[in-house]
Amino acid sequence: VQLQAFGGGLVQAGDSLRLSCAASGRTFSAWNMAWFRQASGKTRELVATIDRGYTRYYVDAVKGRFTISRDNAKNTMYLQMNSLKPEDTAVYYCAALKVSNLDYLYWGQGTLVTVSS
User: Fold this and answer.
1) Is 87 exposed, middle or buried (0-12, 13-18, 19+ CB in 10 A)?
2) How far, CA to CA in Å, does 27 sit from each of 24, 30, 64?
3) DSSP three-state, residue 23
4) Any idea what DSSP says for residue 87?
5) Fewer Cβ within 10 Å of end Cβ, the chain: N or C?
6) Mean pLDDT, the chain, integer
7) How far apart (Å, rounded) are the C-alpha atoms in residues 55 and 28?
8) Closest CA relative to residue 113, chosen from 84, 90, 79, 86
9) CB-based contacts of 106: which residues, under 8 Å, 6+ apart?
10) Residue 39 pLDDT more than 90?
11) What does DSSP assign to residue 73?
12) Residues 88-109: pLDDT tens digits?
């Protein structure tokens, strides 16, 4: 299994950005997946999850602004980020196959999102 996250960039506060996570593997539709982020000098934190039944979870900090989705036909997961804030600045990682609430078996390489004020 390989995950590749992309779509990060430099935006201004209030802007939108969509991250994508392309996955290899024939059982993508069965995977629980997630987005995490890690800001400079901070520990990695969970952002959102989506399971194989499309049940979604968001941490409070992004609820109402971010939307996680998946397209099983394309083996791709997305994170639509609206109303971005400087505190959203971080490297964003996608992850697949849940081991525990904060641990997944496979991880993408990360994509940097920088939000300027």
Assistant:
1) exposed
2) 9, 6, 30
3) strand
4) G
5) C
6) 96
7) 15
8) 90
9) 1, 2, 3, 95, 96, 97
10) yes
11) G
12) 999 999 999 989 888 999 999 9
What confidence tier does 26 reach under pLDDT thresholds 50, 70, 90? confident
Q: What is the percent of the chain where pLDDT is above 90?
A: 90
Residue pair 65/3 in contact by the 8 Å Cβ criterion: no
63 φ, ψ (degrees, to nearest 5) = -60, 130
- β partners of residue 77: 21, 70
- The span from the first CA to the last CA of the chain, in angstroms, equals 37
Q: Output the six-digit token pair for 45.
A: 């934190």
Q: How far apart are CA 30 and CA 13, in angstroms?
A: 35
Q: What local confidence, expressed as pLDDT, does residue 102 receive?
A: 85
